[in-house]
Amino acid sequence: MRPIGRSGAAKTFFAGSLVEGCRPGTEYEMPTRILLEGRPGVGKTTAIRRLASLLHGRDIVGFTTEEIRQGGSRVGFALETTAGHRVVLAHVDLPGPPKVGRYGVDLGVMDRVAVPALMAASADPVPGRLVLIDELGRMELAAASFRAAVRSVFEAGIDVVATVHAHSDPFTDALKQRAGIEVIVVTQANRHALPENLAAQLEYR
Fold first, then answer.
1. Is there a contact between 80 and 45 (Cβ–Cβ < 8 Å)?
2. Cα–Cα separations (whole angstroms), residue 8 to 22, 138, 140, 141
3. Radius of gyration of the chain (CA)
4. Number of C-alpha atoms within 13 angstroms, CB side, residue 161?
């Protein structure tokens, strides 16, 4: 069964639907654009990592984030690309600015690691490519270049799955309201089945 989501527009477009206004006799398949919304710790990153491991037939670009733990305590966050490059994004020992909670954030990481891959994917939407973004959160969105790259990805004809924080934010609130966006709320009840359900939807796109 397909996960239940909500679209941000009165007119909902799902994968495989046709765009109104196309020239007669032509068809255009809308890209899949999914936001996995959830509160911290609910399992968004675990779900998107599991999804990536299940999609053997897709060319996947993007990144995930994970906690850095020391002595049982969380001391920061690392960004890891789908190509395997891992770098510290935020840490209690980083001075900032900016600071998000007690973590200083290295915005240069977004410029050096995350943004180039997203901009390249949106500039050349290769058939079969899927962009994964984990996550659209306060740390990552502090970089203006990253916000611009996210806009480009969601405007390009490319499939994208991104995790997003649940709290209100002007950038992510606007993204959730865009036509063609499906928002799926990640919960403890659906987080285990969600990757398999999404993989079935995305594997042969």
1. no
2. 22, 21, 22, 20
3. 17
4. 29
Tokens of 60: 């996947």
Can you tell me the distance from the alpha carbon of 67 to that of 84, in angstroms, rounded to the nearest whole number?
Answer: 16
Q: N- to C-terminal Cα distance for the chain?
A: 17
Strand partners, 105: 90
The pair of structure tokens assigned to 164 is: 């997003």
DSSP strand pairing (182-185 vs 33-38) = parallel
List b or e across 128-146, with b for residues whose CB sees 16 or more CB atoms inside 10 angstroms: ebbbbbbbbbbbbbbbeeb
How confident is the prediction for the chain on average, in pLDDT?
Answer: 87
Say whether pTM exceeds 0.70.
yes
User: How far is residue 85's CA from residue 94's CA, in Å, rounded to a whole number?
Assistant: 20
Q: Dump pLDDT digits (tens) for 89-146.
A: 999 999 989 999 999 999 999 999 999 999 999 999 888 899 999 999 999 999 999 9
Biggest alpha carbon–alpha carbon distance for the chain: 63
- pLDDT tens profile 134-148: 999 999 999 999 999
CB under 8 A, 24+ apart: contacts of 50-53: 50/195, 51/132, 51/161, 51/194, 51/195, 51/198, 51/199, 51/202, 52/82, 52/132
Strand, coil or helix: what is 174?
helix
